[in-house]
Write a structure and sequence with these properties.
About 2% of the residues have low confidence. By secondary structure, the protein is mainly α. Helices cover 80% and strands 0% of the residues.
Length: 322
């Protein structure tokens, strides 16, 4: 687990830092939809900088030391856990809505989603995540964070109500919105494909092969959506299923079903896997949302060429002076 957490920490920081660097440097990426990806990269960068290292630090403490952990450090662990992961999940939700808007209304998109509107939406995401994280950091919430980063003196009351709010606001509602948006995108692309077969798109296109290019772009989007939904559900579903089972732990039949999972060692493996996969999602997001995007790929290549050129020129100057 320690090796896995170190691996996730390093590559999450590197991947999301690259996304933020190229978004800042390349003017072609100064667009509303790319701002949402930058917001997602900031949230996932916080996961790599704080959440994963703090979970690694917690693994070095035994049970007694966790209860002697400074109270403010414990509450900060809960706050940053909730803030970073909530911002990441809500950014994924907004990205799904933005992509639906861009594909369903391509001509009106620039007027509907301006840079100022994108910044306002990002501010709302940060505000909601901050409010939720601040409430989680209070002793009365009973929260240990979304991924149970806090422990020891953090939890003072029974967190049943908080866990229910967490399950609804952080998983059920985002998954519902993302599923609806991507389903509607699929329907729009399917409708265009049908119109293309019937020759109806040709009447509105004066540029040769424009309808074919549009169709290919739609198919690429559909493939990307399948990857997005698959990775998101793979990374988050196991943990929230365990939360659901824990929420209904007072009911004997749920406990009986959960006890069939095997011995304590097997349950521990399942728990650790479920709690690590959401961190892995923060590592995958830069690959899914940036590397699969052609503009980001070109920006990464440009940054790589500039870096190689800078190192080459500096090495040449050093050899010249020598």
């Amino acid at each position: 687990m320690k090796i896995i957490l170190i691996f996730i920490t390093i590559f999450t920081i590197v991947g999301n830092m690259l996304v933020l660097i190229v978004t800042w440097r390349e003017r072609c990426l100064h667009q509303p939809n790319k701002y949402f990806i930058a917001c997602l990269a900031v949230a996932d960068l916080l996961v790599g900088l704080f959440v994963a290292p703090l979970k690694l630090y917690k693994r070095y403490l035994d049970y007694a030391l966790q209860y002697r952990m400074p109270f403010h450090l414990c509450r900060f662990m809960v706050w940053i856990d909730t803030f970073a992961l909530a911002t990441s999940i809500y950014s994924l939700t907004i990205i799904s809505f933005d992509r639906y808007l861009k594909i369903s209304k391509p001509l009106q998109y620039k007027s509907l989603m301006t840079s100022s509107k994108a910044m306002k939406i990002i501010f709302i995401i940060i505000f909601i995540s901050t409010a939720f994280a601040t409430y989680s950091a209070t002793p009365y919430s009973g929260s240990s964070g979304i991924l149970v980063t806090g422990s020891g003196p953090c939890v003072q009351v029974d967190p049943n109500n908080y866990v229910f709010i967490l399950l609804i606001s952080m998983f059920v509602l985002p998954v519902l919105v993302i599923s609806i948006m991507y389903a509607r995108i699929f329907l729009v692309a399917h409708k265009r494909q049908k119109m293309f077969r019937n020759g109806k798109l040709g009447q509105t296109s004066n540029i040769p092969n424009q309808q074919t290019a549009t169709l290919r772009q739609d198919m690429k989007v559909i493939r990307m959506l399948v990857i997005i939904m698959g990775v998101f559900l793979l990374c988050w579903s196991p943990w929230f299923v365990l939360i659901f089972l824990w929420l209904f732990r007072n009911y004997p039949h749920h406990c009986a079903r959960f006890s069939k999972l095997g011995n304590l060692y097997a349950k521990n493996i399942i728990h650790r896997t479920a709690i690590t996969l959401p961190l892995f999602n923060s590592l995958c997001n830069p690959i899914i949302y940036a590397w699969l995007d052609q503009k980001y790929r070109e920006a990464f290549k440009h940054l790589f060429r500039q870096t190689i050129s800078w190192f080459g020129s500096r090495l040449g100057r050093e050899n010249l002076h020598a």
